[in-house]
Amino acid sequence: MDPGHRHWSRIATEWVAWSRAPNHDAFWAYRDSLLTFISNGGGEAVDVGCGEGRVSRVLKDCGYRVTAVDPVVDFISAAKQTESADDYVVATASNLPFADDSFDLALAYNVLMEIDDVPRALREIARVMRASGTLIISIVHPFTDRGRFAGSELDAPFVVDNSYFGRERFEAVEERNRLQMHFAGWSQPLESYVLALEGVGFAVSSLREPIPHANSAWAEKDRWSRVPLFLWLKAQRLAR
Length: 240
What we know:
The protein is an alpha/beta fold. It contains eight helices and eleven strands.
């Protein structure tokens, strides 16, 4: 079991409570924009690292037939409880139990930061995608990962204390509204992700730095309207 799998298995109950509290975390402020970015479609989609299933539910809303995949058994059970997908599979991103060319769309939403070997995971995701398929990736913005707001004021400057470059392990605990969440994973520059995509024959076709929805009830929306919290990518296979 890799470090990411161990971490999420340990805090699965925390995450289900955290992610299902309405308007509690950033997801709710960006959900409508995510629906637009994915866009309505059809066919087979795989949600790699589905967690408790909220992004799988977005994919269903976009018209896809969804297979939810996660290595954490408790997450798959939680996803089933809310009928988040059409099929459910316990598996890692690096060892997907599907035939080649199985999916029209693959989504890795805030998952690659927790994976120890991103190139290997992307090779496996690419294998199960059809030649005409689209890969959608969400990550915490690499620049944001390396910085912080210098104070609690709305206009506090955003500062980067150390280098943006290199790969670093991160661990953090957030507490809000009597809920606690332990986060852990890897921080690395955007170039590292793009090189990994290039390595499996994919090119970035679209990039977004989304802004929180103006009508969101998320408490942090004004602050993160100044600095991008997330980075979204679409990638397609290059013609051979």
